[in-house]
Fold each of these.
Amino acid sequence: MGATSWLRPRALLPFWVVVALMVDLQAPSGQLALGGFGPKSAFADDDGGGDDGGDDGGQSGSSSGGSGTAPRRSTGPNLFRTLTDRFIPRPPRRGGRRAQRPAVPLPSRAPDQIVATGLSSAEIGQLQATGFTVLDRADIQLLGSELVRLRIPPNMPLEAARDLVIDAAPQSTADFVHYYRPGQEIECAGPHCAAADLIGWPADTGLPAGCGGNVTIGLIDTAINPAHAAFSKGRVEVIRLSDDGVPESGRQHGTAVAALLVGGADSRTPGLLPHARLIAVDAFHRGDRQDDRSEVYDLLRALDLLSGRGVQVTNMSLSGPANALLEQFVRKLSEHGMVIVAAAGNGGPNAEPAYPAAYADVIAVTAVDRMKRPYRRAGRGEHIDLAAPGVEVWTAASVSGARPKTGTSFAAPFVAAAAALMKSANSNASAADIHDALGKSAEDLGAPGKDAVFGWGLLNARAACVVTPKKAT
């Protein structure tokens, strides 16, 4: 018995281990001959060396630490690991790779505030008697009334507080103090993009007589760097709403959008309308989560300011929730002739509609790349009106120089500039006329007619100075 104990089944394991080892060492570099293993297989503790967030089709670094080189043959200290991993299975790691904590969503509204218009002094006093506090108030020329921001009583649910304000003043409009944010910037490495050529943007020499002169564009965005070389010869006026110690927002987004509109013709980032005048309202501040945000209270003040300055075309490369007061404002502004262009948002194809783009009186702009394919993170829906270049668009960086940017934020300025050309050539055209003309002249993409991906299609700037007024019904 003792002499033949090596023939017992329990003693067969070392023999097969040795055989497997011999085959493994004789196999070509990077390949294993037994068990179906191959260069695409990974051990349980092999993280692959790749980045989960990449867009490289799932490729990752090799086990040797190089990029694209074949892994070396297992020798030395890896011998024991090879044997134990192959013949002594380890319990699987829970969740595979280390689980990442889900990102905490940014807040969409102030937790303790209500904004309202149309309140009388007596009604405000009544609300104060029930525990409301007036935080701020501003006269709104557009509505001929006062905009009031209120802090709700302690321990009162926000929805109940809004209902209480509406009940106290049925003629008023009240809602939450929603936050709006600039579209997420996606930095891209790559060559310059011929975005203007994609839509047939006319050069100064190609504009019809009377088109392109005396254009003033409004911009509501983050902070802007007015000292950037792109604006050295331009007419850019920056107005910051908050000067009370609130941290200034970042300058990357606002500077990039402004340069797309009015960057100097001889700068590294020529704008679409380099000779136009830009009134840029910085309505944002840096929030406690280090995010750039604008409260709806400041958005309304910014819109009223631009309206009072006679601006007829306004770009809003920002997005947030639906808000009753914002909807009322954009409707009034449209009736007064202002064309409002807004980014569709970068929440993805299945995201809820973003506002103000989703309002009927606003031109909602999505983004496409140089091949006229939809930007994969752009919002979709029946509210989408037009598509414009928004993938790797060359524009100004925040401090100096330039770089490509991607997002619907950078597509909206193309449509705003086209609307400004139309307005300059047809000063009597209504916002609805321009909205309609841009849609009718667009290059149809995707499904025939208006669709949820491209709207009416790609902006056609060749028709930017032509408007046919809609017939009254």
Amino acid sequence: MEWNVYLSGEIHTDWREQIMAGCKEKGLNIHFTSAVTDHEASDAAGDLLGDETSGFWRDHKSAKVNAIRTQNQIAKCDIAVIRFGDQYKQWNAAFDAGQCAALGKPYITLHGEGIVHPLKEVDAAAMAWATGADQVVEILAYVVNR
């Protein structure tokens, strides 16, 4: 069986590449999907619908266009990995975690100990909390190979 793993969250580090490389190294049969990680492209997704003079409406339209992709990928995934970085607040990642919880999709949170308290509800619904990409790879290897 090929597993479909959705990678959500922080876009400023290479955590996705680390997980994908680690899973490839272990020979895991996993297909990875992700939200758009090009920040400028994501912000401009709604521009196809016409120019906006208000930043709110530009962001609003872009969020909806991006949600077409995100909601579809979450619905199709077997498990999600949701990364919260230390530098920026990833409200979109928290929203993705809520969608996973509502759909009964298992997810793993990935974040440092410094933000345990603000993520307590998100972590409470997660199947696991990892502090590093290596831990995520080990969890996926266990799940896929057992």
Amino acid sequence: MNKKTLPAALGAALLAALAGCGPKPPEADLQNLTAAMNAYLAKKGDLCLGKTRWPIDVPQREAGTRARNALQMPVLERLGLVSASKATVKDDKEQEAGEIEVTRYALTEEGRKYFIDREPQGDFCAAHLTLDKVVGWEAPKDAKEPSEVVVTYTYRIDAAPWIGDAEVQRVFPMVDRVVRGAGTMQLKQSFRRTDTGWVPAQI
């Protein structure tokens, strides 16, 4: 071998060796995915009602109907979480109709305890989920990269005391289902691998 090429060959070998000694991407194993799930639920584990903008107006024409807010808001009022007042507003559905009467529901001091201000918008929330255990994981069928996995897990739940109210359970059936499923219901969350750990996959 030419002596002049020896340093270059050694340098290339050294760089290859150093590259091999660098940090390895995190494996898809129980420890790493449990850590990822804990981090995810710490930020995104709130179980909310989809009531992001307050006050909430319920038109008089919806009173007594099966409209969602017409059913749900009087229950929250009875529990002291919202207060009701009368107001007159422009009719969003029929502009030519002019103004209509509505029942305006606003959060009370007690209700504001359950409004979580977060990005991109806040929401009125009933419970917070934490990890019970990771049941398993697998690559999604439509994964664009092999570094994506879907984690199946069970959860524990810290629910607001008013969730136990029978009327709340009736008008918020999906919330009731999730609360009752603590420890047994299996949920799923997608993650993708980065150099520093597993992060929630973009949907």
Amino acid sequence: MQSTLILGIGNNLLTDEGVGVHVVRYLEAHHPDTPGVTYFDGGTLSFTLAEPIAEHDNLIVVDAARIDEAPGTIRCFEGADMDRYLTGNRASVHEVGLMDLFDIARLSGTFPDCRALIGVQPASLDWGEFPSPEVAPSIARVAQMALALAARWRQ
């Protein structure tokens, strides 16, 4: 069975910047036993994430993303579309960028063929432990989108 890592990244002390972490927490609470799927709070990224990525066949990353849409808008970038999006958005508040982790995966032969970034347009990046009212409703929708994607890849 194909294994999928759903990696939520972001700083959950900066309102909408933490949307990926909030999605992972939602999945852990509402879908704790999804076969073949692992949920992981990646925080603000680090090189230590290379190992969990390498241990799975597929990767879904959930993060706040500048997609020039209304706050709370969800966009899924899959495969090469994800790579193109990340190449154009190397600037990150995170210690290590996703492209850096992908470089490690490529060099180690563990780069996932099935990969996606589910991005949510933030409304606020101010101090706060909870998502903004514009972004909060997207958490359940992103969770369902991630689970549907993992299920499609298992087939």
